Amino acid sequence: MKKFLLIVISILMFSSMVYAKAYTRIISLAPSITKSLYELGIDKELLGITSFCPKGKSQKEIIGTLIEPDLEKIISLKPDLIIAAKEGNSKVMVEKLQRAGFDIYTMEMSQGFEELCKNFEALGKVLGKEKEAGNIIKKAQSQIDEIYKAAQNRQIQTVFWEIGDKPLYTAGGKSFLNGYNKYSNTKNIYDGVLNARYSPIDIEDVLMRNPDIIIAADMDGNDAAQIRSSWAKYSSIKAVKNKKIYVFSADDLFGLTPTIFAETLKKIFNTIQ
What is the rounded distance in angstroms from the CA atom of residue 57 to the CA atom of residue 46? Predict the structure, then answer.
């Protein structure tokens, strides 16, 4: 019996070592993944990124875009791990890479901060960075708790999320962006109305719902001045009449790491009035 237990323990230890092996040639297929890797202290080991990813400290090869990664380029780099995102990367492309014999890890979608932390923790486990991931999550959670507590002293305001204007797109009930509403004591006017993560919307419907605040992502090449100008003609909306149109970087809003979420929440909380 004792010998059997020793064998079982040995197998479990070996399995754990394989799961968290030391990867040295990693490719990221999404900006959110790349940012997560940098937070975990992984830079030199990251040799391939998409054209939309932050470059990091060491030289990286560009392996195409989020939607269309270059399969031949990826193969030529001989990665020992490719990390994909369930939201954003093509399932067909991921399957092609798997058939090519590559070790693939796919990060799950995050519908809120809790899921974001769970997925970040899982990534840390794969890379042998569980302690680092835990410390990052703990710090971000502390920052968020502080903001949430302060937000309870504010009156609840309704928010319209503008995620592009050609056509006008917004965030529905399943969007990650609702996490910012949860911790800043605001309410998305389409939470509980639109079940989708993101959806086109008619301006007439926005007028009817009359949000207190408009928070826009700088999508479609529009800057803050252009976005505010495009809303100026709808002066009956409270957010327009009271000049409560706030524009944030899409990179920040959709950063999808615990640290970026906490930092962006702080920016939103300190900006909205």
Answer: 10
The reply to whether 117 falls in a domain is yes
Residue 179 confidence (pLDDT)? 93
Residue 227 lies in a domain: yes
Task: Quote the DSSP letter at residue 177.
Answer: T
Structural tokens at position 109: 């979608």
Domain carrying residue 112: 22-128
Peptide bond preceding 211: is omega within 30 degrees of 0, i.e. cis? no
Contact (CB, 8 A) for 179 and 261: yes
Report d(CA 128, CA 125) in Å as an integer.
5
Number of domains in the chain: 2
Residue 93 and residue 26 share a domain: yes
- Token pair for 243: 């000049």
Angle CA 96–97–100, to nearest 5 = 90
> Do the Cβ atoms of 218 and 246 come closer than 8 Å?
no
Residue 116 contacts residue 64 (beta carbons within 8 Å): no
Asked, for residue 197, whether it belongs to a domain, the answer is yes
Mind listing the pLDDT tens digit for each residue in 127-162? 999 999 999 999 999 999 999 999 999 999 999 999
